[in-house]
Automatic annotation (TrEMBL):
It comes from Flagellimonas chongwuensis. Pfam families: GyrI-like. This is AraC family transcriptional regulator. InterPro entries: GyrI-like, Reg_factor_effector_dom_sf. Gene3D superfamilies: Regulatory factor, effector binding domain. Residues 156-295 form the GyrI-like small molecule binding domain.
Amino acid sequence: MRKIISIILALVVGVILWYLFLKPQDYQVNFKAKAIPGTIYETVKAWNKGFDSVIPIDYKTPSHFEQTILVNDSVHIYDWKITRVHDSLSEVEVNIKDLSHSLGNRLSVPFSDTDFEKGSRKLLLDFNSLLNEHIKGFKVSIENEEETFSSFCACVKLNTSPEDKAKGMMANYNFLDGILAENEVQLNGPPFVEVLDWDLDNNLLSYNFCNPIVRSEKLPDHPDIEYKRMFSKNALKAVYHGNYITSDRAWYALLDYAKENNISIEKKPIEVFHNNPHIGGNELEWTTEVFMPIKESNE
């Protein structure tokens, strides 16, 4: 009997010690979101910029990352874990730890609804409202496999964060279009972006912003313009409707589709833009074709 009691006491002490000192979070919030992990991740990045002291997201994958939020005199770590249920639903688990008051929170949470819990829930309710509003502003549809276009083109190479891709395009649209028009270069299709490197770990993007053109003897020689030929290749295709700022939501949809269907791809999307944002209009009527190249069998 004494042995049984000793084992029970040891287990109880072990559980208490684990809860107070080893448990990875002080509090956990779970909710469902009508979005895929990549969209949630990008929305957290945008939401994170609204805090007074912005600390970059600690990226692991689009389904797992850490956010650091300064709340009054405390540093809160939000450990996001997102599980995709299907192409329009994810289960979100957020494990929250207060680095400054962790022990006090763990002692209080089981017995009362603390300010720490209330504040954490409010923040995540605010985030969920932002996410729900965001997903109303775009649509993505997957259209299986298709050959990309082939064209000669004039390009400007840019390096930005993924969220500043559209800003880089807008800053160079008049520059590229103007020089080509001045030299009577004939355009041969809508503008497009060719991603050269999508560095998720460091939140960096390297890409060419291009205009398809008819090759001629009048091509202007400018240090910021490169001429190249785009060759067709087999790719997964999606159609995105919405503001070009967030067209990378289609990239994540294609990544998920490729993983689900065991398709090896190159994470170098190509986007073809069929509307001029300078004209304005309903953003849900703007159309972007998005291609994710499929790796050749010998690669």
